[in-house]
Amino acid sequence: MSATAARRAVIALAVVILAVFPLVSGNLYLQNLLIMTFLLAIGASGWNIMGGYAGYISLGNSAFIGLGAYTTGILAVRAHLSPFAGCLAGGLVCAVAAAILSLVTRRTRGMYFVIVTFAALQLLGIVATTWSGLTGGSQGLALPLPTWSLSYQNWPFYYPLLGLLVLTVAVSAVVRRSKLGLGLFAIADDEDKAAGLGVRTDIYKMIAFVFGGTFVGIAGGLYAYYVSFLNVAAVFDIVTSVLIVLAALLGGRGTLWGPVLGAFILEPLANFTSTGLGGADAGAIRLLLFGGLLGAVVLFLPRGVLPTVTRSWQRAQARRAGLAGPAMAGGAATAVPSDPDQVMLSRASGQPESPADILETRGLVKTFGGLRAVDGADLTVTAARITGLLGPNGSGKTTLFNLIDGTVGASSGQVILAGRSLGHRGRAARAHAGLARTYQLPRLFPSLTVAENLAAAQPRFSFRRLWLPRVSADERARAIDVLSGLGLDGYADSNPAELSYGQRKLIELAQVLWLDPVLLMLDEPAAGISPALAQRLAGMVRSLQRHGVAILLVEHDLAFLASLCDHVYVMANGKIIASGTVAEVSGDRAVVDAYLGDEVALAAAERTA
Amino acid sequence: MKIVNMAQGAFLVLSAYLCYGLWSRFGIDPLLGGFIVTIPMAILGVALYRLVIERVQRIDPGLTIVATFALALVAEACIALVWGPDPTASTPGYFNQAFRLGSLVVPRAQFYAGLLAVGVTVALQAVVRRSWLGHAITAASENPEGARLVGVQPARVGAWIFAIATATSAFGGAALSFLYQFTPDSQDVWIGLTLSVVILGGLGSIPGAFAAGLLLGVAEAVTSTYISVRWSAAVPTLLILVVLLIRPQGLFTRAARPDAAT
User: Fold this and answer.
1) Residue A504 and residue A496 in contact, taking contact as beta carbons nearer than 8 Å
2) Residue A57 in contact with partner chain B when CB distance is under 8 A
3) Contacts of residue A236 in chain B, CB cutoff 8 Å?
4) Rounded to whole angstroms, how far apart are CA atoms B192 and B236?
5) CB of A72 within 8 A of CB of A23?
6) CA–CA separation, A341 vs A542, rounded Å?
7) CATH level 2 (architecture), domain A27-312
8) How far is Cα A61 from Cα A241, in angstroms, rounded to an integer?
9) For all residues of chain A together, what is the average pLDDT?
């Protein structure tokens, strides 16, 4: 607690000092330096919401400074709008631009986003140069000069930018502590999994990028008025983009204060190189310096100053307290609780067995090139029984799972959940419709705590929900209950990496049950865990089924399947070749062939020889 | 290898300067110079892979593209410090001559550069499709763990890929050195073009890149003829944005299995 209080005091003191500084000192050089520092800090903090929280790095964020600056400048020159109003329009234009650019991330991941932001920066530079009728082109654009008395020094720029910086950091802090932030961190860890847990990744990313872009755009507008002259080469300079990324990385990507700290470290250096260096080589030296710094930070300080310092400080604290390492909640790992299922199901529908079909697939086909991975699969899963799916490796079971939950789009065929065709609905929409799925190897979010991992699952989407706290008090209580039901008391605030494989499997199950699913798909739930744990898992699955959750599970362990499933489907070569009880299908000739194939024939041949 | 190298434009311009240096200092024709320059460029590629890329991949693969971007800036700065900021070009005897085939006028420089481009593309495609190295590259890119199991060392393959990529830029640089004027910051334009070509063609596809290169050239020519020369510069970046919004897998490739190789 005292560390938090000390940190708050330092921050409050810093803000007060910055606020009174121009009143007590008439040093215009320092005022200028601080104004430029605020600008960079806003740029880096804005970048950090998308680049740090969501892990989508942008190399073109100075495009927002340019866009905000030119919008403000053009409105001031052509429409005689005050730059202080114009910069808000600049923010709006940047918000729209960010929203459009974020559409690219709907279907593509990290490196495409880097390319898109870089291309957008280049394109804006070219447009600003070429569309000279609007922007003044290479001649530049001169804004009207400020009309206030010189005795105000640079206050009219200083205070709005300081205020904007405080606002940017405040919004950044709110995002961090909200469900929006939780979703963004989940996206950075494992976007595909987050979507499967009902996180509307497209909306989350768009909001993150729009927030960042808007503040930077407003700051760009103020900057335009401050320098009062815009030229393309300076405004769309790649070095500005580098400084933004560098400040965020140097200070600590994904932290709240890192980008601000990075800006305060970098700007004096940047200011020196742009005013202190002269001669023909000045530009090259600037490039060498900041390019080299960027490379050095990536290689030698990838976490940034703030996390590195915090960590070594914590280590020192721990050493002083006589602890060898971080405290571990040990001992409870293998305890088997009496009845875990009640808690897990506290939100399950609890309906009596209904005869209705929960899941139906009709003629599902998926081709990859010439390969028909799933070739016309029809199956029905009802709430009345536990349905198994088996088949040799490569028979298409996991692809069928991926088709049902929307990870891959079907080439043809239909998935019908509770009577409604899922069509082309995205993964999050399927999760909201009640479809939940675990993976062969559990996929938890490594940068979130166990409780946060559970609360990351979003059974529905609304904009209001985004602003709720990461883990509300109710959710935390529920998470602790669930964990204690699983025999994992005291692990709520642990990192998933500290858990064993079996424990992670249990937590992933609890995580998807958070969605309150009508259909639960389990991909090899018993693989690689101890027989005792497998038995417990079987008990949980049975209990879920009794509470009205339809279950479809893939499993290779026939004994496990036989003990659990009332009905199984057998797949081979993408087709369903048999169905019935385990006893029925294991006597089926086609099934035996599919599983054992040539080996049986070979063994038979050997016997006769 | 699924690494987007933002320094490829800088390597191209560096190669152009090296070819120019060979031509102006020793009178070596840039077309021949291109072959010579492949050697230092390949060495540079391996060195950068070992010193930078491989390490970043271990630390945080998401930052690889940032590291290559940093390399591009450093390379541009070094070029500017060595050769200065003024526009440069090699002017061998044929640079402004032309063949005449009836009414068709074919500039010799463009003709040679075109031949070089076709030759390099065919050679690259042959390496990827037919050689053991090519299969190892495909394997290591699609499934590094599996590749390791069958005796392919992804790190070594990565070094080879980088060597091939930087060596190939030597031929591009050779053509650039007598086709256009270039300055150290030309890398900015060329990385835009390079990215646009690979995005259009689909990442990982050599024939796609070739087709996309042709398409891009035509699109730029059409823009400068019918709209304005000044707007043709916007074509590559505009195409990147449009293609990534509408068809992110590129114009010429099928979407890969999204569930494989993760």
Assistant:
1) yes
2) yes
3) none
4) 7
5) no
6) 9
7) Orthogonal Bundle (1.10)
8) 6
9) 84
* Spans of all domains in chain B: 1-93+105-184, 185-253
Q: Within 13 A of A107's CA, how many CA atoms are on the CB side? A: 12
Q: Looking at the predicted structure, is the pLDDT value of residue A544 above 50?
A: yes
Q: Which helix (H) or strand (E) holds A179?
A: helix A179-196
Report the DSSP pairing between strands B98-101 and B104-107: antiparallel
Q: Give the model confidence (pLDDT) of B5-49 as tens digits.
A: 888 889 999 999 999 889 888 888 888 888 999 999 999 999 999
- As for the ipTM of the complex, it is 0.87
Please list the residue range(s) of chain A that carry CATH number 1.10.3470. Answer: 27-312
Residues A370-417 have pLDDT tens digits of: 788 888 888 888 887 889 998 888 788 888 888 898 888 888 888 888
Q: How many CB pairs under 8 A join A and B?
A: 144
> Residue A151 pLDDT > 80, yes or no?
no
**Count of other CB atoms within 10 angstroms of residue A289:** 18
Q: What's the predicted TM-score (pTM) here? A: 0.87
B65 with A368: Cβ contact below 8 A:
no
C-alpha B37, offset from chain centre = 14
Least Cα distance to A251 among A336, A310, A325 occurs for: A310
User: Residue A583 CB: number of other CB atoms within 10 A?
Assistant: 9
Interface list for A 252-291 with B (CB within 8 A): 280-281, 283-288, 290-291
CATH topology of domain A352-434+517-609: Rossmann fold (3.40.50)
Per-residue pLDDT tens over the stretch A3-52 = 788 888 988 999 999 888 888 887 888 888 999 999 999 999 999 999 99
